[in-house]
Fold this sequence. Notes:
The protein is mostly helical and 104 residues long. It has helices spanning 7-14, 34-43, 46-52, 59-68, 71-79, 83-102; strands at 23-24, 30-31.
Amino acid sequence: MAVKINKDIARQWLADVPEEKKFWCSDGKLFKNLAELGVGLNEMSEETFRYHANAYKADYSNWVKDVIGDEALAGFLLRSISKSEAAGRVRDRIAFLNKKITGK
């Protein structure tokens, strides 16, 4: 079911998650929000990306869906075939959510 994204939803999806819900990356980095995930995707090795996103795992997608609550972004991440594509999807989604908040 599609969620109507208003300012409150956008703020919620961009906010920090609770401490116990942070994304623990295999390279030791922690992500507490979409912005940190986007930066992390840009900076991590392809090997680290593949550890979490492969034929058997969809860790980024699952975290975004289950913790952040953004099912559309989760779907984009599930279909991303490279870390640069995934980082671009996160960057674009953050820009979209910020426009919902500012109205610009």
